[in-house]
Amino acid sequence: MGLVIALNKGRIFKECLPLLADCQIEPDGDPNVSRKLIFGSRTGGHKLIITRSADVLTYVENGVADIGITGKDTILEYGSTMGFYEMLDMGIGRCKMMTAGPVGVVEPEGVLRVATKFVNITRAYYQKRGRQVAVIKLSGAMEIAPLLGLSDTIVDIVDTGNTLKANGLEARDTLCDISTRLIVNRASMKTKFVAVQALIQNLERVVRL
Fold it and tell me: Out of 3.40.190.10, 3.40.30.80, 3.40.1400.10, 3.40.190.150, which CATH number does the structure's domain 95-177 have?
């Protein structure tokens, strides 16, 4: 039975393709050339949907996709546990979500201004620590917010840290570790159990190599 698999476009999609290929799931066209966002598979009758990270959750929760592959940051920020199960850490796209601020500058007392696109994660983090914050939502280029006086600090994904350094910032506290996760629609876990379990087991074997 074929599965519908929603994939986070960009880096995660590119890193997932070889893993899926090792499980005999390959798109029936070249995603690097085609502008298509939905592909069939060469074997098995599967379908691949390439979409934005948050939309992966939406497609899986609503049963449009049986399987979703996206970052843990997306699950923490937008996800609920109502419509899907988180089944597998795929071991790719590893990074950290961290706070960062200008090098050598001490955070001010009182209300802390924090720029981020991870609003829910940020609020929960500071709430647990009893720190009052004003969260400023940005879609990208968080690093320039402290430089322009918009915020005191930022919360963002940190990989190498090179972008922070290039903009005069330093990484500080780690909120959580991030990696790519496989999620499964709750109904699909029942109706397509054999196919879903087979894919999970195959991917487990591949990521452990």
Answer: 3.40.190.10
Which tokens is 108 given?
């001010």
> How far apart, in whole angstroms, are the C-alpha atoms of residue 64 and residue 34?
22
For residue range 172-201, list pLDDT tens digits in order.
Answer: 999 999 999 999 999 999 999 999 999 999
Residue 165 CB contacts under 8 Å (≥ 6 apart), including other chains: none
Beta carbons of 90 and 189 less than 8 angstroms apart = no
Q: What is the fold of 4-93+179-207? A: D-Maltodextrin-Binding Protein; domain 2 (3.40.190)
Mind giving me the DSSP string for 26-90?
-BSS-TTT---SEEEBSSTT-EEEEE-HHHHHHHHHTTS-SEEEEEHHHHHHH--SSSEEEEEE-
The first and second tokens of residue 96, run together, are: 């950290």
Query: Which residues sit opposite 40 in a β-bridge?
Result: 47
